[in-house]
Design brief:
The protein has 422 residues and is α/β, with parallel strands linked by helices. Helix content is 33%, strand content 23%. It has a 6-stranded mixed sheet with strand order 4-3-2-1-15-16. It has a 6-stranded mixed sheet with strand order 7-8-9-12-14-13, with no helix packed on it. Helix 1 links the parallel strand 1 and strand 2.
């Protein structure tokens, strides 16, 4: 028996990332491009392992886009076999969700087992309901929706049902589920351990997963294609995700060859710059711009999402670091669709040594001088800057006008910068 299928998941149609209509369209374009690939490659069927939609409540345009892609498959005679993901599950007060809506209209085959008295029932798909279909003679596809923390238990019961199932004439078995595998990424909900998946192994040739947006595969039987578009900055680290094209030949060993393909998507440019080596805000910005200019010359693509992360220990006071110039610089150099500048720096932390036996004025002078020494701009003449600070404080306490205080501050700053004494 031979067959070819395409495995995709986590399209998240309708996601308006960064509140951008263009980003919302990007998710549709990725979905449509993969469907075009399925048609061009003349696959026998498509697996959609959950989260076709970004959320339960979708706008009409998102529904139109989803239907348009599914109609193309139907016109090409390619069935779409799907399971429901966590993002698109119906509200408890609703009778059906949008995936069930599409299934009732014959746009896709929505697979899910029935559960009765703690048992999982794997019945054939009839009258728009059921756990499995056979899209190709000798090939059976089971499906299971998202069960969250109960996924391991349901899979264990499904393995029991597979053990008892009549599999006469079935040469190749696919089990599709919207669930993750533990350890792929941190803190992933709905994840199942390898130990908990092991009972399925005897009965399943290809475990088709969705839910985790990172691509991965294990032991030539567990496959997860990842998300076709970039749902978060972290996902930009995983460039190969997209979809699997799988060729099945039950007379060969192994029975299938699964190849991961990265689909076209909006480029993301992630820039990381450490601030530790620069003593002043001007020097930091100048060197950061040079760094970004070098990266820009290496970058190809139009209207990317650009994220600049500043990290390390600031050698000056945080109030002197403003992000607007960095954002303007990114806009100038990249003309991005969206720009993100994140300040993840931290200030130098050390304790100011103070002799509490001193008089209050002397103690105050020592503490202010110590604080100023933290900032590389004031460190060399921290004592003079402390004297100026105290003089300004005294003017404010004595009720001097704002003009007089500003004049004294400007005059004192000029003397210090010129190397004079206060």
């Amino acid at each position: 028996m031979r067959a070819t299928f395409l495995h995709m998941a986590d399209c998240h149609l309708g996601k308006r990332q960064y509140n951008s209509r263009k980003r919302q369209n990007d998710f549709t374009h990725a979905y449509v491009d993969i469907i075009k690939t399925a048609i061009n490659r003349e696959v026998d069927f498509v697996l959609l392992a959950g989260d076709l939609f970004e959320k339960r409540a979708i706008d009409p345009l998102t529904l139109v886009h989803a239907i348009s892609g599914l109609e193309r498959l139907r016109e090409a005679g390619i069935p779409c076999l799907a399971v429901e993901g966590n993002h698109e599950r119906a509200y408890y007060r609703d009778s059906i969700g949008w995936m069930r809506f599409l299934a009732e209209r014959g746009m896709l085959t929505l697979l899910d087992p029935e559960i009765e008295d703690g048992r999982v029932l794997l019945r054939p798909y009839e009258k728009r309901r059921g756990a499995y279909v056979e899209p190709v003679a000798g090939l059976r596809v089971y499906g299971m929706r998202y069960y969250g923390s109960s996924a391991a238990h349901v899979m264990e019961r499904a393995a029991d049902a597979l053990e008892a199932a009549d599999r006469q004439g079935v040469e190749y078995t696919i089990f599709m589920a919207h669930a993750g595998v533990e350890g792929v990424i941190d803190r992933a909900g709905g994840a199942v351990s390898h130990r908990e998946l092991a009972p399925l192994r005897r009965h399943v040739d290809y475990l088709a997963l969705g839910h985790i947006h990172k691509d991965y595969e294990f032991d030539n039987w567990i496959y997860n294609p990842g998300s076709p578009e970039t749902n978060s900055l972290r996902e930009a680290e995983w460039p190969q995700r997209g979809y699997y094209l799988v060729e099945v030949d039950t007379e060969a060993e192994p029975k299938h060859r699964a190849r991961l393909h990265a689909n076209a998507r909006r480029p993301f440019e992630r820039l990381f710059f450490k601030v530790d080596a620069f003593d002043t805000p001007v020097e930091l910005f100048t060197q950061c711009r040079r760094f970004v200019e070098r990266r820009r010359r290496q970058f190809t693509g139009d209207e990317p999402v650009v994220a600049l992360r500043l990290s390390g220990v600031l050698p000056f006071d945080r109030s002197a670091l403003t992000l607007t110039p960095f954002e303007e610089m990114i806009e100038e150099l990249y003309r991005p669709l969206h720009c993100i500048v994140r300040d993840e720096t931290r200030t130098a932390e050390f304790e100011v040594e103070a002799d509490r036996r001193q008089s209050r004025p002397a103690l105050e002078r020592q503490i202010i001088s110590g604080l100023l020494e933290r900032d590389s701009r004031f460190r060399a003449r921290s004592g003079d800057w402390a004297e100026l600070t105290l003089a300004i404080k005294q003017l404010a306490v004595s009720g001097a006008s704002a003009e007089a205080i500003l004049e004294e501050a400007a005059r004192g700053e000029e003397r210090i910068l010129q190397g004079g004494k206060l």
